[in-house]
Amino acid sequence: GTDILVKMKSGLLAPSALVSLKNLHELRRIRWDADRGLAIGALATHNEICNSAVVQEHFLSLSEAAHKLANNQIRNRGTIGGNLVNAIPSADLPPILIALGAYVTLAGPNSSRTVPVESFFTGVSRCALEPEREILTEVVIPPQKTTGSTYIKFGLRRSGALAVVGVAAAVTMDGNVVRDVRICLGAVYKVPTRAIQAEQVLIGKTWTNDLLEQAGRTAVGCCLPISDIRGSAEYRRDLVRIFTRRALKRAITQGHV
Predict the structure, then answer these.
(1) Cβ-contact 28, 34 below 8 angstroms
(2) How many separate domains does the chain show?
(3) Last residue of a domain, one of 141, 162, 180
(4) In this structure, what DSSP letter does residue 231 have?
(5) Regions of the chain short of the pLDDT cut 50
(6) 242 and 162 both lie in a single domain
(7) 43 domain residue, yes or no
(8) Which domain holds residue 198?
(9) pLDDT digits (tens, 9 = 90+) for 138-160
(10) Domain termination site, one of 141, 171, 187
(11) Beta bridge partners of 193
(12) What pLDDT is stored for residue 1 in this prediction?
């Protein structure tokens, strides 16, 4: 409702009916299972995710990303399911979910299916959900071998700002050697984008500041930012380089997922 009501008041949307899901209490649960991982109901609010002891124990980076989202009023009302289905390129949760290999469950009248968050978004405000017959019921993050992960963003204000650029990174280290890494860029293309070429720069190598800088420069070639009121495309590319390097260093050195 934090987006749809704004669109209705602006005359951009005029639905003939609205169906509330708020009484489906099972869609608000946050659960951990050693085999399946972390399951978050689609109606869990951003503050519930941010403050959840279960989330903080297993995926602190997700809790931190939820805290960076909008302002306290929005975090109290907005939900993880709504954030994903809204499919806005500058959204804060998709990059960290993609970096952590999360998937969503979509339920219809006779069956359900799972879709990786990485392939869930199909365009600006477009996603794989079939709205006439499906609802998003949960987000699942599988158990990780990852040793560190983080999400950082740049906005025009210290709080409550949309991301000009957001970068998430999840790494698996063996000593100082990068065994695996996933990097996801937000707000620099029509959908959140894996920086796969930048990942390939790192895998199998001993990390150094120079290597992270090389990965950051490579990540610039993985995005196609636009120029808008919040920043030019050139500015965003420079931010991608800087924030990719910073996110990687934080994920490597912090030692928690």
Answers:
(1) no
(2) 2
(3) 141
(4) B
(5) none
(6) yes
(7) yes
(8) 148-254
(9) 999 999 988 999 999 999 887 77
(10) 141
(11) 185
(12) 67
